[in-house]
Write the structure tokens for this entry.
Amino acid sequence: MINYIDVEADNISPYTQKQWHKETNEGKRTMSSPLLSLKRTETYLRSIMSTYDFGLEYRLTVLAPGTTIYSSKEPYLTSYVDERSFERWLMEKRMLSTPLKHSQLMMAEKLLKHTRTAAVKRPEWEESSIEE
């Protein structure tokens, strides 16, 4: 699971469990911790995995390729990828022999069973089916 951070900051650093500091030319400001949404997503995925008795290994990743993350240590099963480590991380992902594994596709299928789609037919779609 990846949480992409797109902030205008020279660097960011964890401050508390719920807040991080971002430093810019104007000074230091607080922002919500990206780990909050990752943990929320992890809880949802774990509940679906337990419903289907399905095991899948995963890591939480905070991805910030445009800034530097200063942290003394990363939480368990979590990695921080910033501008210093982004190229290496990207090359590792490109070098994977199978980018999608069967178990990941099975998990995606399980997730789709728990989603709701709200769609509206567009007028263009109606016209193209009449012309054919």
The chain is about 35% helix and 25% strand. Residues 34-51 form the longest helix (18 residues). The helical segments are 34-51, 86-94, 102-113, 123-131.
